[in-house]
Amino acid sequence: xxxxxxxxxxxxxxxxxxxxxxASVGCAGNDNDDNNxxxxxxxxxxxxxxxxxxVFTNLPVTLDGxxxxxxxxxxxxxxxxxxxxxxxxxxxxxPSSSNPTFIPDVNGTYEIRLIVNDGTNDSAPHTAMxxxxxxxxxxxxxxxxxxxxxxxxxxxxxxxxxxxxxPGGPYSGSxxxxxxxxxxxxxxxxxxxxxxxxIELPEIEAVDKIxxxxxxxxxxxxxxxxxxxxxxxxxxxxxSDWELLKDATYTGVSPKWSKAVQVIEMPDYNIxxxxxxxxxxxxxxxxxxxxxxxxxxxxxx
Length: 301
Ligand SMILES: [Ca+2]
What we know:
By secondary structure, the chain is mainly β. The chain contains 1 helix and 19 strands. It has 2 domains: 53-133, Immunoglobulins (Immunoglobulin-like), CATH 2.60.40; 136-300, Jelly Rolls. Calcium ion binds next to loops.
């Protein structure tokens, strides 16, 4: 009998020690969770910044703190803040309202933070991540991807690294599209174009506009221009003729990569479900130069 008690006691100690270690490891793990980590014994209000969301860059976003609560149904006051991506100058419309708005002005992650107060105590902060993206983006880093080169094979995708022709490198990453990446375009360049995939458009409010944004470098001889055409899907798999985008005609020389912004003007946004674009040199040359290089193409609000 005495012998049995003796061996039991050290075993109990080991078990107890084990439980203490497991419990303290569990608590340490919870310390990393910012959301609603309420100290015991206090009826603190609970902030709810809403779920994480994917949103479109440049479209207004309305936050919703109405899921926040307090134990005794006290009237809550709200205090919102956010961390923006680098280069963003977005502002919250009214950080003390339950539903402030903001416009995610650059692509990237906006970390939204809400603290509510019940008149006595602040809640723990609650965060929601808003990921802002354009409608479509491609920078040719995976090669031609869903794009197509049609007509004469003048357009290429890759790294322009000639010291004699072109920009000497892509705008971003290690790849872009260009007419003869390391040499001049052909004397008759207009029989080749770079065609985008069909780009699906989201539901669009009458007040919204969409844009084609891209970076380009160009060097055109006289009588040669770079033009962008657009075709619209007017009903399922029925596409309109190619039409020149207003103002999307480039001539002369752009000696460095620069951003181009084209408004996509359509009276029938919500009939059109998809659009596609083509980049084409047009004209004839008595001589030829390096041509047209494009990168980081976006369709965005
Ligand atoms: Ca690129």
